[in-house]
Amino acid sequence: MIIKLFAIFCVLTLTQIVMAESKTSIHDIALKDINGQPTSLKSFKGKVVLLVNVASKCGLTPQYEALEGLQKKYGTQGFTVVGLPCNDFGGQEPGSNEDIKQFCSTKYKVTFPLMDKVKVLGSERHPLYVRLTGKDAEFPGDIKWNFGKFLIAKDGTVLKRFEPQTKPDSDDVSKAVEAALAQK
């Protein structure tokens, strides 16, 4: 009897933990910046954020130019792009954080924040991507390739998901960013 009660207690505790994690604000999920320093998206609370899993050796890598264009166009209005390097697709982000920083600043003059490399797929998927793509997410389903994009509202709500082929300077993305910036 005690073993059954203990088992029920464990199941209930785990259920509460899972439910609490699914309700965790996107701003509270721990990350590391490109320099390996602990951070989160808390510093972007009150801003509209476009989260993008990026890679430097991908056919879509030229999207960095359009992402930087969005940053320049809307950055002073309470918007930022946040790049999350990822090596999950064809080994297209093999470099170190220092290599990634150098590539982004030299080749594309990136000024938006970059984070430490993350996993977006599989059992080692970063908690941010569990929140963004898990079964209880606003837009569930695995990331399909590099340059998947999520538009995050000022309050941390996930507003929109754009697939990798959607160019950052497309009308769809611009309109969604402008609508999010207009929200109180």
Task: Give short descriptive properties of this protein.
184 residues; globular; two-stranded antiparallel sheet; alpha+beta; Glutaredoxin
Folded structure, characterized:
It is a single chain. The protein has 184 residues and is of the alpha+beta class. It has one domain: Glutaredoxin, CATH 3.40.30. It is 34% helix and 15% strand. The protein has a 4-stranded mixed β-sheet with strand order 4-3-5-6, covered by helices on one side. A two-stranded antiparallel ribbon has the order 1-2. It is globular, with a radius of gyration of 18 Å. The model is unreliable at 5-22 (pLDDT under 50).
> What is the name of the CATH superfamily?
Glutaredoxin
Major sheet description: 4 strands, mixed
Radius of gyration over all CA atoms, rounded = 18 Å
Overall geometry: globular
- Uncertain segments of ≥5 residues (pLDDT<50)? 5-22
Secondary-structure class: alpha+beta
The average pLDDT value, as a whole number, equals 90
How many domains in all? 1
The tally of strands reads: 6
CATH topology: Glutaredoxin
Helix content: 25-40%
CATH class: Alpha Beta
Task: Specify the CATH architecture.
Answer: 3-Layer(aba) Sandwich
What are the secondary-structure elements, in order, as H or E? HEEEHEHHEEH
**Can you list the strand order of the major beta sheet?**
4-3-5-6
